[in-house]
Design brief:
Subcellular location: Cytoplasm
Helix content: 25-40%
Shape: globular
Protein name: Pantothenate kinase
Largest sheet: 7 strands, mixed
Main location: cytoplasm
CATH architecture: 3-Layer(aba) Sandwich
Catalytic activity: (R)-pantothenate + ATP = (R)-4'-phosphopantothenate + ADP + H(+)
Oligomer: single chain
Distance between the termini: 39 Å
Bound molecules: adenosine-5'-diphosphate, the ligand CC(C)(COP(=O)(O)O)[C@@H](O)C(=O)NCCC(=O)O
Organism: Microlunatus ginsengisoli
Number of strands: 9
Structural class: alpha/beta
Number of helices: 8
Length: about 325
């Protein structure tokens, strides 16, 4: 038998596509939709149009049946975490400042994380108890292209090692330390690079949403054999947006075709060379990008983190959420 590495002893042996049901309660779409505590939707069709990602068909019915109940559950978590903070302060005899409630949103490229994150921001901000909701995406913590090139990682964009993980961890730790102002760098999908000298500031919101491919990655084992910290150690709640890999691949390809007719035509786009591809050439190009970068990243790095989430939203081929899993407490 081959020698086992020390870290193997701490791993629960699971096939990569196995799903843990034990720690989760699973609700069908219909049962989940019945949980919405209010029928008033604080969002109209025009706002939804602005929040939806390119080629994302999420409808007002989806908002009402899926995202509204999720925001109601999240609001409970926020309230109870505040009570826990007060109770902990009373126990410690200290008056520590409450820190933002941090929500992580994970999932593959093209699965619709941005739409989920923007919808939750809108819905959560409608609650008078926590109106200040901010959102950051982890792409701002990708290394700039020049650095990715230097490290031989230009074809690994989105893999865990393509991020400045230390800076991302410090950002989330500073937010959870209650720092008055914490800033994050900014990425441009259009230019396909970090925007130099630009940052966004996070000033102690009630809720911070952190959206990105790898936010549920566990801590790395350091050279001395000890585990470090991971951003997910500072999440109060996390959501994994899930779908069949073949469906996500198709969504990626059709989004690429839409981008060919829109963003790729912008002279500032990194991908102007794709604007004049024929339909068939564009499909081949998109499939190649998927099969060499985003597909392997999903298999190796993102999907194995699914069961670390507090909530899993599983979409069908039409982007409709079929079932929801919530971690038991
Ligand atoms: N090359 C691109 N040019 C312009 N926008 C893009 C490009 N690639 C992705 N986007 C946009 O960036 C956002 C994030 O995309 P992605 O990381 O695939 O996550 P998701 O689809 O899960 O939200 C989406 O709103 C998408 O439409
Ligand atoms: C920018 C991304 C890595 C996503 O970053 P995230 O905000 O999820 O950390 C991804 O959308 C991307 O552009 N991947 C590169 C491969 C491709 O062009 O499809």
């Amino acid at each position: 038998m081959p020698a086992r590495r020390r870290a193997d002893y701490y791993c629960f042996p699971m096939p990569p596509d196995a799903q843990l049901l034990g720690p989760f309660v699973e609700l069908s779409r219909a049962d989940w939709a019945n949980l919405a505590e209010t029928t008033a939707l604080p969002l109209d069709a025009a706002t939804l149009e602005k929040l939806r990602g390119l080629s994302d068909p999420t409808s007002l019915t989806d908002v009402r049946e899926v995202y509204l109940p999720l925001s109601a559950l999240l609001s409970r978590y926020v309230r109870i975490t505040r009570e826990l903070h007060q109770s902990t302060n009373a126990f410690l005899g200290r008056a520590t400042t409450r820190t933002p409630f941090v929500i992580g949103i994970a999932g593959s490229v093209a699965v619709g994380k941005s739409t989920t994150a923007r919808l939750l921001r809108e819905l959560l901000a409608a609650w008078p108890e926590h109106p200040r909701v901010e959102l950051i995406t982890t792409d701002g913590f990708l290394f700039p292209n020049a650095e990715l090139d230097r490290r031989g990682l230009m074809h690994r964009k989105g893999f865990p090692e393509s991020y400045d993980r230390r800076a991302l961890l410090k950002f989330v730790m500073d937010v959870k330390s209650g720092d008055e102002e914490v800033s994050a760098p900014v990425y441009s999908h259009l230019v396909y690079d970090i925007v130099p000298d630009v940052s966004v500031a996070v000033r102690r919101p009630d809720i911070l949403i952190v959206e990105g491919l790898n936010v549920l990655q566990p801590a790395r084992i350091r050279l001395d054999g000890r585990a470090g910290l991971a951003v997910s150690d500072f999440f109060d709640f996390s959501v994994y947006v899930d779908a069949a890999a073949d469906d996500i691949r198709d969504w990626y390809v059709s989004r690429f075709l839409s981008l060919r007719d829109t963003a790729f035509r912008d002279p500032r786009s990194y991908f102007t060379r794709y604007a004049d591809l024929t339909h068939d050439q564009a499909v081949t190009q998109a499939e190649q990008l998927w099969d060499t970068i985003n597909g392997p990243n999903l298999d190796r790095n993102i999907l194995p983190t699914r069961d670390r989430a507090t909530a899993i939203l599983r979409k069908d081929r039409e982007h409709h959420v079929q079932w929801v899993r919530i971690r038991k407490v």
